[in-house]
Amino acid sequence: MSQPPGLNDAERRLWAAFPTGATVVLGDDRPAGPLPDRMVRAEIITRLLLGACEPRPGAVAAVRLRGAYVLGQLDVSGGSVEYELKLERCRLVEEPDLSNAATRELRFADCWMPGFDAGGLRADGYLSLSGTEIEGQVRMPRAQLSGGLRMNGTTITASDPDRFALFSGGLVVEVGTFIRNAHITGGVRFVGARMNGGLFMEGTTLTNPGGLALDAQNMVVEDAAEFSRGFTALGTVRLRSGRYNGILSFSKARLDSGDPDRMALHASHLQADEMLLWPEEKIKGRVSLSYSRINLLMDHPSVWPDEMYLNGLTYETLRGAEFKDRLSWISRDEEFHLQPYEQLAGWYHGIGHDDLARKVQLAKLRARRRNLNPVGKAWNHVLDWTVGFGYRPWLAFAWFALLLAIGTTVFSIENPRPVKPRDELPAFHALIYTLDLLIPLDTFGQQLSYDAVNWSRWVAYGLVTTGWVLATALIAGATRVLRPDTGTR
So what's the pLDDT on residue 401? Predict the structure, then answer.
Protein backbone atom coordinates (compact mmCIF):
# COMPACT_ATOMS: atom_id res chain seq x y z
CA MET A 1 0.00 0.00 0.00
CA SER A 2 1.33 3.45 -0.90
CA GLN A 3 2.00 5.98 1.80
CA PRO A 4 -1.02 8.04 2.85
CA PRO A 5 -0.85 11.81 2.27
CA GLY A 6 0.04 14.24 5.03
CA LEU A 7 2.96 12.32 6.54
CA ASN A 8 5.95 14.22 7.88
CA ASP A 9 9.48 13.09 7.15
CA ALA A 10 9.81 10.90 10.28
CA GLU A 11 6.46 9.22 9.57
CA ARG A 12 7.38 8.55 5.94
CA ARG A 13 10.59 6.88 7.08
CA LEU A 14 8.64 4.72 9.55
CA TRP A 15 6.07 3.76 6.91
CA ALA A 16 8.80 2.78 4.47
CA ALA A 17 10.70 0.75 7.08
CA PHE A 18 7.68 -1.19 8.37
CA PRO A 19 7.45 -3.87 5.62
CA THR A 20 10.97 -5.13 6.42
CA GLY A 21 10.96 -4.38 10.17
CA ALA A 22 13.92 -2.03 9.93
CA THR A 23 14.59 0.27 12.88
CA VAL A 24 13.99 4.00 12.30
CA VAL A 25 16.41 6.06 14.38
CA LEU A 26 15.30 9.64 14.95
CA GLY A 27 17.74 10.22 17.80
CA ASP A 28 19.80 8.34 20.36
CA ASP A 29 18.29 10.10 23.37
CA ARG A 30 14.77 10.46 24.69
CA PRO A 31 13.37 13.78 23.45
CA ALA A 32 12.35 16.21 26.20
CA GLY A 33 10.05 18.19 23.91
CA PRO A 34 8.32 18.17 20.53
CA LEU A 35 11.26 18.52 18.14
CA PRO A 36 9.87 18.86 14.57
CA ASP A 37 12.16 16.25 13.02
CA ARG A 38 11.36 13.66 15.71
CA MET A 39 7.57 13.88 15.96
CA VAL A 40 5.48 10.84 15.02
CA ARG A 41 1.72 10.68 15.39
CA ALA A 42 0.47 7.71 17.40
CA GLU A 43 -2.29 7.10 14.85
CA ILE A 44 0.36 6.26 12.23
CA ILE A 45 1.88 3.62 14.50
CA THR A 46 -1.60 2.29 15.23
CA ARG A 47 -2.47 2.00 11.54
CA LEU A 48 0.72 0.09 10.82
CA LEU A 49 0.14 -2.32 13.70
CA LEU A 50 -3.40 -3.00 12.53
CA GLY A 51 -2.35 -3.85 8.96
CA ALA A 52 -2.60 -0.62 6.98
CA CYS A 53 0.64 -1.46 5.17
CA GLU A 54 1.47 -4.78 3.53
CA PRO A 55 4.64 -6.58 4.70
CA ARG A 56 7.31 -7.36 2.14
CA PRO A 57 7.44 -11.04 1.12
CA GLY A 58 10.39 -12.78 2.70
CA ALA A 59 10.71 -10.21 5.50
CA VAL A 60 9.23 -9.84 9.00
CA ALA A 61 7.28 -6.61 9.25
CA ALA A 62 7.48 -4.67 12.51
CA VAL A 63 7.29 -1.18 13.99
CA ARG A 64 10.71 -0.37 15.36
CA LEU A 65 11.30 3.24 16.31
CA ARG A 66 13.98 5.03 18.37
CA GLY A 67 14.12 8.55 19.78
CA ALA A 68 10.62 9.65 18.70
CA TYR A 69 8.24 12.15 20.25
CA VAL A 70 4.89 10.37 19.90
CA LEU A 71 1.86 12.63 19.67
CA GLY A 72 -1.64 11.41 20.48
CA GLN A 73 -2.70 8.08 21.92
CA LEU A 74 -1.39 4.73 20.75
CA ASP A 75 -4.71 2.87 20.83
CA VAL A 76 -5.09 -0.73 19.67
CA SER A 77 -7.66 -1.67 22.31
CA GLY A 78 -9.70 -4.70 21.29
CA GLY A 79 -7.66 -5.12 18.12
CA SER A 80 -5.55 -7.94 16.74
CA VAL A 81 -1.94 -6.94 16.18
CA GLU A 82 0.12 -9.31 14.06
CA TYR A 83 3.35 -7.35 14.17
CA GLU A 84 6.02 -6.65 16.75
CA LEU A 85 6.16 -3.21 18.34
CA LYS A 86 9.47 -1.88 19.61
CA LEU A 87 9.82 1.69 20.85
CA GLU A 88 13.17 2.77 22.26
CA ARG A 89 13.92 6.06 24.01
CA CYS A 90 10.63 7.51 22.92
CA ARG A 91 8.41 10.00 24.73
CA LEU A 92 4.71 9.14 24.52
CA VAL A 93 2.57 12.17 25.27
CA GLU A 94 -0.53 10.12 26.07
CA GLU A 95 -1.08 6.79 27.79
CA PRO A 96 -0.92 3.81 25.39
CA ASP A 97 -4.09 1.72 25.37
CA LEU A 98 -3.59 -1.98 24.64
CA SER A 99 -6.57 -3.18 26.65
CA ASN A 100 -8.21 -6.38 25.42
CA ALA A 101 -5.88 -6.51 22.43
CA ALA A 102 -4.24 -9.63 21.00
CA THR A 103 -0.65 -8.81 20.11
CA ARG A 104 2.78 -10.15 19.37
CA GLU A 105 5.91 -9.01 21.21
CA LEU A 106 5.72 -5.53 22.76
CA ARG A 107 8.77 -3.60 23.88
CA PHE A 108 8.91 -0.11 25.34
CA ALA A 109 12.57 0.40 26.26
CA ASP A 110 13.83 3.50 28.10
CA CYS A 111 10.69 5.41 27.16
CA TRP A 112 8.59 7.96 29.05
CA MET A 113 4.80 7.82 29.28
CA PRO A 114 2.00 9.12 31.56
CA GLY A 115 0.53 5.65 32.16
CA PHE A 116 0.03 2.28 30.53
CA ASP A 117 -3.19 0.31 30.04
CA ALA A 118 -2.83 -3.39 29.25
CA GLY A 119 -5.97 -4.69 30.92
CA GLY A 120 -7.07 -7.93 29.26
CA LEU A 121 -4.04 -7.90 26.93
CA ARG A 122 -3.13 -11.22 25.34
CA ALA A 123 0.46 -11.09 24.15
CA ASP A 124 1.94 -13.95 22.15
CA GLY A 125 5.42 -12.92 23.19
CA TYR A 126 6.86 -10.87 25.99
CA LEU A 127 5.88 -7.43 27.22
CA SER A 128 8.82 -5.26 28.18
CA LEU A 129 8.81 -1.91 29.93
CA SER A 130 12.46 -2.13 30.98
CA GLY A 131 14.12 1.19 31.68
CA THR A 132 10.89 3.08 31.06
CA GLU A 133 9.73 5.93 33.28
CA ILE A 134 5.98 6.01 33.88
CA GLU A 135 4.33 8.88 35.74
CA GLY A 136 0.93 7.37 36.28
CA GLN A 137 -0.62 3.94 36.69
CA VAL A 138 0.27 0.70 34.90
CA ARG A 139 -2.85 -1.47 34.57
CA MET A 140 -2.69 -5.17 33.73
CA PRO A 141 -5.85 -6.85 35.08
CA ARG A 142 -6.59 -10.19 33.37
CA ALA A 143 -3.55 -9.83 31.09
CA GLN A 144 -2.01 -13.00 29.65
CA LEU A 145 1.64 -12.77 28.63
CA SER A 146 2.93 -15.95 27.08
CA GLY A 147 6.48 -14.69 26.60
CA GLY A 148 7.03 -13.15 30.02
CA LEU A 149 7.04 -9.72 31.61
CA ARG A 150 10.14 -7.56 31.83
CA MET A 151 10.29 -4.40 33.87
CA ASN A 152 13.97 -4.27 34.79
CA GLY A 153 15.04 -0.78 35.80
CA THR A 154 11.52 0.58 35.33
CA THR A 155 10.37 3.60 37.34
CA ILE A 156 6.66 3.95 38.11
CA THR A 157 5.25 6.82 40.14
CA ALA A 158 1.54 6.77 40.87
CA SER A 159 -0.06 10.14 40.22
CA ASP A 160 -2.88 9.32 42.66
CA PRO A 161 -1.75 8.28 46.19
CA ASP A 162 -4.95 6.25 46.62
CA ARG A 163 -4.23 4.05 43.58
CA PHE A 164 -1.68 1.32 42.99
CA ALA A 165 1.26 2.23 40.77
CA LEU A 166 1.11 -1.25 39.20
CA PHE A 167 -2.40 -2.67 39.25
CA SER A 168 -3.38 -6.16 38.15
CA GLY A 169 -5.74 -8.94 39.06
CA GLY A 170 -5.69 -12.42 37.56
CA LEU A 171 -2.48 -11.68 35.66
CA VAL A 172 -0.96 -14.78 33.99
CA VAL A 173 2.69 -14.70 32.96
CA GLU A 174 4.45 -17.60 31.31
CA VAL A 175 8.26 -17.96 31.10
CA GLY A 176 9.03 -15.48 33.89
CA THR A 177 8.37 -12.09 35.49
CA PHE A 178 11.49 -9.97 35.82
CA ILE A 179 11.16 -6.72 37.77
CA ARG A 180 14.73 -6.20 38.87
CA ASN A 181 16.25 -2.90 40.06
CA ALA A 182 12.95 -1.11 39.53
CA HIS A 183 11.58 1.79 41.59
CA ILE A 184 7.84 1.75 42.11
CA THR A 185 6.14 4.40 44.22
CA GLY A 186 2.52 3.74 45.10
CA GLY A 187 2.43 -0.03 45.59
CA VAL A 188 2.05 -3.13 43.41
CA ARG A 189 -1.06 -5.31 43.16
CA PHE A 190 -0.65 -8.91 41.97
CA VAL A 191 -3.79 -10.38 43.53
CA GLY A 192 -4.65 -13.75 41.98
CA ALA A 193 -1.64 -13.62 39.65
CA ARG A 194 -0.04 -16.76 38.27
CA MET A 195 3.69 -16.55 37.57
CA ASN A 196 4.52 -19.80 35.79
CA GLY A 197 8.17 -19.00 35.22
CA GLY A 198 8.98 -17.42 38.56
CA LEU A 199 8.94 -13.89 39.96
CA PHE A 200 12.25 -12.05 40.24
CA MET A 201 12.34 -8.68 42.02
CA GLU A 202 15.94 -8.47 43.20
CA GLY A 203 17.11 -4.92 43.88
CA THR A 204 13.64 -3.44 43.42
CA THR A 205 12.26 -0.77 45.75
CA LEU A 206 8.52 -0.60 46.46
CA THR A 207 7.50 2.54 48.29
CA ASN A 208 4.14 3.00 49.98
CA PRO A 209 4.81 3.69 53.71
CA GLY A 210 1.82 3.00 55.92
CA GLY A 211 0.07 1.21 53.06
CA LEU A 212 0.49 -1.84 50.84
CA ALA A 213 3.84 -1.96 49.11
CA LEU A 214 2.88 -5.32 47.55
CA ASP A 215 -0.54 -6.96 47.57
CA ALA A 216 -0.12 -10.49 46.21
CA GLN A 217 -2.91 -12.43 47.86
CA ASN A 218 -3.69 -15.79 46.27
CA MET A 219 -0.71 -15.50 43.93
CA VAL A 220 0.75 -18.74 42.52
CA VAL A 221 4.44 -18.83 41.63
CA GLU A 222 6.13 -21.76 39.95
CA ASP A 223 9.89 -21.98 40.42
CA ALA A 224 11.26 -19.10 42.53
CA ALA A 225 9.86 -15.93 44.07
CA GLU A 226 12.91 -13.75 44.69
CA PHE A 227 12.29 -10.74 46.91
CA SER A 228 15.99 -10.71 47.67
CA ARG A 229 19.42 -9.16 47.16
CA GLY A 230 18.49 -5.55 47.73
CA PHE A 231 14.71 -5.86 47.45
CA THR A 232 13.19 -3.12 49.62
CA ALA A 233 9.57 -2.80 50.65
CA LEU A 234 8.59 0.41 52.45
CA GLY A 235 5.07 -0.64 53.35
CA THR A 236 3.27 -3.94 53.91
CA VAL A 237 4.06 -7.00 51.80
CA ARG A 238 0.89 -9.10 51.74
CA LEU A 239 1.29 -12.66 50.42
CA ARG A 240 -1.74 -14.15 52.14
CA SER A 241 -3.00 -17.49 50.72
CA GLY A 242 -0.27 -17.63 48.10
CA ARG A 243 1.33 -20.80 46.77
CA TYR A 244 5.04 -21.00 46.00
CA ASN A 245 6.14 -24.21 44.32
CA GLY A 246 9.80 -23.51 44.88
CA ILE A 247 11.67 -21.02 47.04
CA LEU A 248 10.20 -17.87 48.53
CA SER A 249 13.23 -15.76 49.38
CA PHE A 250 13.75 -12.55 51.34
CA SER A 251 17.51 -13.01 51.53
CA LYS A 252 19.36 -9.70 52.05
CA ALA A 253 16.14 -7.76 51.58
CA ARG A 254 14.67 -4.93 53.64
CA LEU A 255 11.16 -5.00 55.07
CA ASP A 256 9.81 -1.87 56.73
CA SER A 257 6.08 -1.30 57.20
CA GLY A 258 6.58 2.37 58.03
CA ASP A 259 4.59 1.83 61.23
CA PRO A 260 5.61 -0.61 63.99
CA ASP A 261 1.96 -1.45 64.59
CA ARG A 262 1.39 -2.48 60.97
CA MET A 263 2.29 -5.71 59.20
CA ALA A 264 5.64 -5.67 57.47
CA LEU A 265 5.04 -9.18 56.08
CA HIS A 266 1.58 -10.72 56.01
CA ALA A 267 2.27 -14.27 54.85
CA SER A 268 -0.51 -16.25 56.51
CA HIS A 269 -2.29 -19.24 54.93
CA LEU A 270 0.40 -19.66 52.25
CA GLN A 271 2.17 -22.78 51.02
CA ALA A 272 5.85 -22.88 50.13
CA ASP A 273 8.41 -25.58 49.46
CA GLU A 274 11.10 -23.40 50.99
CA MET A 275 11.04 -19.98 52.64
CA LEU A 276 14.20 -17.98 53.28
CA LEU A 277 13.26 -15.20 55.70
CA TRP A 278 16.68 -13.70 56.23
CA PRO A 279 16.64 -10.00 55.29
CA GLU A 280 19.63 -7.71 55.64
CA GLU A 281 18.40 -6.13 58.87
CA LYS A 282 15.74 -6.57 61.53
CA ILE A 283 12.22 -6.50 60.12
CA LYS A 284 10.45 -3.28 61.08
CA GLY A 285 6.81 -4.10 61.71
CA ARG A 286 4.87 -7.24 62.48
CA VAL A 287 5.15 -10.59 60.68
CA SER A 288 2.39 -13.17 60.30
CA LEU A 289 2.98 -16.77 59.21
CA SER A 290 -0.26 -18.03 60.75
CA TYR A 291 -1.77 -21.18 59.25
CA SER A 292 0.94 -21.41 56.59
CA ARG A 293 2.53 -24.67 55.46
CA ILE A 294 6.26 -24.44 54.76
CA ASN A 295 8.44 -27.47 54.10
CA LEU A 296 11.73 -25.75 54.92
CA LEU A 297 11.94 -22.49 56.87
CA MET A 298 15.28 -20.70 57.16
CA ASP A 299 15.50 -17.57 59.30
CA HIS A 300 17.65 -15.97 61.97
CA PRO A 301 16.99 -14.36 65.38
CA SER A 302 18.72 -11.13 64.33
CA VAL A 303 15.97 -10.31 61.85
CA TRP A 304 12.89 -11.30 63.84
CA PRO A 305 10.55 -8.43 64.74
CA ASP A 306 9.31 -8.00 68.28
CA GLU A 307 5.87 -9.33 67.37
CA MET A 308 5.14 -12.38 65.22
CA TYR A 309 2.03 -14.47 64.63
CA LEU A 310 2.80 -18.18 64.28
CA ASN A 311 -0.44 -19.85 65.34
CA GLY A 312 -1.27 -22.63 62.90
CA LEU A 313 2.13 -22.54 61.16
CA THR A 314 3.39 -26.01 60.22
CA TYR A 315 6.82 -26.96 58.88
CA GLU A 316 8.96 -30.00 58.24
CA THR A 317 12.42 -28.50 58.75
CA LEU A 318 13.82 -25.45 60.56
CA ARG A 319 17.23 -23.89 59.95
CA GLY A 320 19.15 -20.87 61.22
CA ALA A 321 18.37 -20.60 64.95
CA GLU A 322 19.39 -22.32 68.18
CA PHE A 323 16.94 -23.91 70.61
CA LYS A 324 16.82 -20.95 73.01
CA ASP A 325 16.07 -18.65 70.09
CA ARG A 326 13.22 -20.86 68.92
CA LEU A 327 11.61 -20.58 72.35
CA SER A 328 11.74 -16.80 71.99
CA TRP A 329 10.43 -17.09 68.42
CA ILE A 330 7.21 -18.90 69.37
CA SER A 331 6.53 -16.57 72.30
CA ARG A 332 6.43 -13.33 70.29
CA ASP A 333 2.66 -13.37 69.93
CA GLU A 334 0.99 -11.23 72.61
CA GLU A 335 -1.85 -13.77 72.72
CA PHE A 336 -1.01 -17.25 73.95
CA HIS A 337 -1.63 -20.19 71.58
CA LEU A 338 -0.88 -23.86 72.17
CA GLN A 339 -0.22 -24.84 68.56
CA PRO A 340 3.17 -23.11 68.02
CA TYR A 341 4.56 -24.89 71.10
CA GLU A 342 3.08 -28.25 70.08
CA GLN A 343 4.45 -27.87 66.55
CA LEU A 344 7.96 -27.00 67.76
CA ALA A 345 7.95 -29.79 70.34
CA GLY A 346 6.78 -32.25 67.69
CA TRP A 347 9.56 -31.14 65.36
CA TYR A 348 12.27 -31.62 67.99
CA HIS A 349 10.79 -35.01 68.86
CA GLY A 350 10.79 -35.97 65.19
CA ILE A 351 14.51 -35.23 64.80
CA GLY A 352 15.37 -37.21 67.93
CA HIS A 353 15.75 -34.42 70.52
CA ASP A 354 13.23 -35.58 73.09
CA ASP A 355 14.95 -33.55 75.82
CA LEU A 356 14.40 -30.34 73.86
CA ALA A 357 10.81 -31.35 73.08
CA ARG A 358 10.17 -31.66 76.84
CA LYS A 359 11.65 -28.20 77.40
CA VAL A 360 9.28 -26.76 74.79
CA GLN A 361 6.34 -28.38 76.58
CA LEU A 362 7.54 -26.82 79.83
CA ALA A 363 7.79 -23.41 78.14
CA LYS A 364 4.25 -23.87 76.81
CA LEU A 365 2.79 -24.47 80.25
CA ARG A 366 4.71 -21.55 81.72
CA ALA A 367 3.51 -19.26 78.94
CA ARG A 368 -0.05 -20.44 79.52
CA ARG A 369 0.22 -19.19 83.09
CA ARG A 370 -0.47 -15.58 82.11
CA ASN A 371 -4.02 -16.47 81.05
CA LEU A 372 -4.95 -18.17 84.33
CA ASN A 373 -6.79 -16.73 87.32
CA PRO A 374 -4.82 -16.06 90.57
CA VAL A 375 -5.58 -19.49 92.04
CA GLY A 376 -4.65 -21.21 88.79
CA LYS A 377 -1.43 -19.21 88.57
CA ALA A 378 -0.49 -20.21 92.12
CA TRP A 379 -1.10 -23.90 91.41
CA ASN A 380 0.75 -23.54 88.12
CA HIS A 381 3.79 -22.22 90.00
CA VAL A 382 3.61 -25.07 92.52
CA LEU A 383 3.52 -27.69 89.79
CA ASP A 384 6.37 -25.98 87.97
CA TRP A 385 8.60 -25.87 91.04
CA THR A 386 7.78 -29.32 92.33
CA VAL A 387 7.54 -31.69 89.35
CA GLY A 388 8.08 -29.49 86.28
CA PHE A 389 4.50 -30.20 85.16
CA GLY A 390 5.31 -33.90 85.04
CA TYR A 391 8.24 -33.44 82.67
CA ARG A 392 10.76 -33.18 85.54
CA PRO A 393 9.67 -35.76 88.13
CA TRP A 394 13.19 -35.77 89.59
CA LEU A 395 12.36 -32.37 91.09
CA ALA A 396 9.83 -34.01 93.40
CA PHE A 397 12.45 -36.48 94.60
CA ALA A 398 14.91 -33.63 95.15
CA TRP A 399 12.34 -31.77 97.25
CA PHE A 400 11.49 -34.98 99.05
CA ALA A 401 15.14 -35.63 99.90
CA LEU A 402 15.63 -32.06 101.14
CA LEU A 403 12.54 -32.18 103.35
CA LEU A 404 13.52 -35.61 104.62
CA ALA A 405 16.93 -34.28 105.66
CA ILE A 406 15.37 -31.28 107.40
CA GLY A 407 12.81 -33.39 109.26
CA THR A 408 15.39 -35.97 110.31
CA THR A 409 17.63 -33.23 111.70
CA VAL A 410 14.80 -31.44 113.51
CA PHE A 411 13.33 -34.54 115.16
CA SER A 412 16.75 -35.84 116.14
CA ILE A 413 17.21 -32.62 118.10
CA GLU A 414 13.64 -32.35 119.43
CA ASN A 415 12.29 -35.86 119.95
CA PRO A 416 8.50 -36.18 119.74
CA ARG A 417 6.69 -37.47 122.82
CA PRO A 418 5.06 -40.92 122.76
CA VAL A 419 1.27 -41.01 122.85
CA LYS A 420 1.27 -44.33 124.83
CA PRO A 421 3.67 -46.07 127.17
CA ARG A 422 6.93 -46.77 125.29
CA ASP A 423 6.71 -50.51 125.80
CA GLU A 424 3.53 -50.49 123.69
CA LEU A 425 5.07 -48.47 120.80
CA PRO A 426 7.74 -49.12 118.18
CA ALA A 427 11.11 -47.55 118.84
CA PHE A 428 11.34 -43.94 117.66
CA HIS A 429 13.50 -43.18 114.62
CA ALA A 430 13.77 -39.61 113.32
CA LEU A 431 14.20 -40.66 109.65
CA ILE A 432 11.26 -43.07 109.70
CA TYR A 433 9.10 -40.56 111.57
CA THR A 434 9.83 -37.92 108.89
CA LEU A 435 8.98 -40.41 106.15
CA ASP A 436 5.64 -41.09 107.81
CA LEU A 437 4.89 -37.35 107.89
CA LEU A 438 5.81 -36.82 104.22
CA ILE A 439 4.00 -39.87 102.86
CA PRO A 440 0.22 -39.26 103.00
CA LEU A 441 -0.28 -42.73 104.52
CA ASP A 442 0.74 -43.97 107.97
CA THR A 443 3.12 -46.43 106.42
CA PHE A 444 5.50 -47.20 109.33
CA GLY A 445 3.24 -46.47 112.32
CA GLN A 446 5.48 -43.69 113.65
CA GLN A 447 3.16 -40.76 112.94
CA LEU A 448 0.32 -42.19 115.12
CA SER A 449 2.72 -43.30 117.83
CA TYR A 450 4.56 -40.05 118.46
CA ASP A 451 3.49 -36.42 118.65
CA ALA A 452 5.84 -33.54 117.88
CA VAL A 453 6.25 -31.01 120.66
CA ASN A 454 7.05 -27.33 121.02
CA TRP A 455 8.42 -25.60 117.91
CA SER A 456 9.01 -28.89 116.07
CA ARG A 457 5.25 -29.34 115.88
CA TRP A 458 5.12 -26.63 113.19
CA VAL A 459 7.81 -28.44 111.25
CA ALA A 460 5.66 -31.59 111.42
CA TYR A 461 2.61 -29.69 110.13
CA GLY A 462 4.68 -28.29 107.29
CA LEU A 463 6.00 -31.71 106.32
CA VAL A 464 2.49 -33.18 106.24
CA THR A 465 1.26 -30.32 104.05
CA THR A 466 4.16 -30.42 101.62
CA GLY A 467 3.86 -34.19 101.45
CA TRP A 468 0.32 -33.92 100.22
CA VAL A 469 1.28 -31.20 97.72
CA LEU A 470 4.14 -33.28 96.33
CA ALA A 471 1.96 -36.38 96.07
CA THR A 472 -0.80 -34.45 94.30
CA ALA A 473 1.69 -32.88 91.90
CA LEU A 474 3.26 -36.23 91.09
CA ILE A 475 -0.13 -37.80 90.38
CA ALA A 476 -1.15 -34.83 88.24
CA GLY A 477 2.09 -34.99 86.26
CA ALA A 478 1.93 -38.74 85.82
CA THR A 479 -1.61 -38.67 84.48
CA ARG A 480 -0.87 -35.62 82.25
CA VAL A 481 -3.67 -33.59 83.83
CA LEU A 482 -1.46 -30.63 83.22
CA ARG A 483 -1.13 -31.27 79.47
CA PRO A 484 -4.48 -30.12 78.07
CA ASP A 485 -5.36 -30.76 74.47
CA THR A 486 -7.22 -27.50 74.15
CA GLY A 487 -6.53 -24.03 75.33
CA THR A 488 -6.51 -20.46 74.17
CA ARG A 489 -6.64 -20.35 70.40
Answer: 75
